[in-house]
Amino acid sequence: MQEQSQRPPLDRRQLMQSTVLGLGAIAWTARVGSAAPQGVVQAKATPYALPPLPYKEDALAPAISANTLGFHYGKHHKTYVDNLNGLLKDTPDLAGLSLEDLIKKTASDTAKAGHFNNAAQVWNHTFYWNSMRPKGGGAPTGKMLELVNASFGDYGKFKEAFLTAAKTQFGSGWVWLVLDGSKLVVDKTGNADTPMARGKKCLLTCDVWEHAYYLDYQNKRPDYVTAFLDSLLNWEFALQMMG
Description:
Number of domains: 2
CATH topology of the largest domain: Helix Hairpins
């Protein structure tokens, strides 16, 4: 797969557009409407497009290889985008919604489980890419470190809580760092579920579906999540998502 070109750091508005609803166009900037929690609302959401990665496919190696990232992004993430667009052709009442609104509207509707699962996976994966950066990881600094210490005791206890959530998530799913009032909380969800669907403010996520790590780590999920925390975690993005 052809590598994505390196992009300069984005400001908060651009990051929100690309992370949450940059799926309406390949460009990082999107035509937007009114502001909404954790993002912006597009006036017209569909058809969705696979957003560009915020770094080259080999930029996260050795923690995540270019081979894993290429398959994960170019096959799995793209499939969710394609599936969602296909489903929306037969549901014009949903086609005009922003991605966040579509997820929230279909979250508890069993008849629209396909819409929810694919829309949430599009959102989750875009959020995951931005939750990582080359030469990231380790303890945060400044305001984020203060919040981590106040919420967990210290960075070591946060890391332990995050790893425990990853190891105890049965089957496929996601591990999240969310802001609950003024406190940080580690959350986990199964399959395509996302805390955003329930109005929670997500700051970071780690994909624990096997396709996210199996080519590099086989069945050693804890090793993958440890590498994510030690080498990739994007605390700068988490701070920007706090608003």
